[in-house]
# Entry
Amino acid sequence: MKKYVDIYKEELCKEVIPFWESHSKDDVYGGYFTCLDLQGNVYDTDKFIWLQARQAWMFSTLYSSLEANPNWKEMARHGINFLENHGRDKNGDWYFSLDQRGNPLVQPYNIFSDCFAAMAFGAYYGISGEQRYAEIAKDTFWNILRRQDNPKGPYNKKYPGTRNLQNFALPMILSNLSMELEPILGKQEVSKLTADIATLIITQFYDSQRGLVLENISENGEFVDSFEGRLLNPGHAIEAMWFIMNIGLRNNDLALVEEAEQIMYQQLEKGWDEQYGGIFYFLDAKGQPTEHLEWDRKLWWVHLETLVALAKTYAFNRSPKAKTWFEKVHEYTWYHFRDPKNGGEWYGYLDRRGELLLHLKGGKWKGCFHVPRALLEISRTLDTI
# Structure
């Protein structure tokens, strides 16, 4: 497995990061362009807060954990300044999108803008030492917790009181975000937060009878036999399990690490497409048709997050099973998503057979995050063996 350390690090430093450095920086109005074609040309200038924040976090993290490269710190600062100047409404909630100049386009209906803004400002505080960035991260984090029972607030289109569901995405993000902000929140607070979130995920969202992690459950933690209640997102579940592994390792709770490992394998085995290879985007817990018409697409982030989970599992216990699965998923991911012709960032969207669907390197939902984060996590994780 050591051979993958150099492969992944070289791809990160010589291909992926230079692509974003060369093509994404908006030197006129600030922030980053994320809608980039195969060659890095900008095809849309709208700016999506969660992608702006993810990129600022990514460059801050590269600076703090890989190399104190001043260009990386400047790239991070460039995004942070844009976010600080334009990203929030008067209540401190983060918009979903802005135009190129920083004027609001879409209201703050999506709490994941806030989650990644908190992550970005926390990481930039870590490399700048400027207290105001810590305050923005902390204020945003507590605002997320205040909103968590109704994340969309006034923009929620659900009819109240008829089918109130808990959604998996926010606890999943919080399990990682809490640990990211530990230097700001403090060890005791993070210990409590992560313990509560891990318990919620393992005992409620994980349906032990079915061996599946559900995307939506009732307010009481029960299975709901509906489109939403039967929905599976294998990539979400697998990504969450490496977050849970990190929590277990932080707390020296090896039983939690092992439980997360076994749950991860269950989601991977359920989600793997035996006919064409790769991992399905969405599935139904009962094998019924899903409401998501894109259910059988193969997405970049699903496979990369799976590789991170498998790398962490192998580093933890040297499991032959983790090695076999890692090599299998690596072969599919490296062959189908990496772009050897144009170089730089990877493709994002394939059909079920593995054929390219969208000729883009970034867009409204894909930015400078999953590819570089996975390359960094995998190379660092396997380098500890």
Residues 109 and 153 are 7 Å apart (CA to CA). The longest strand covers residues 42-44. DSSP finds 14 helices and 13 strands in the chain.
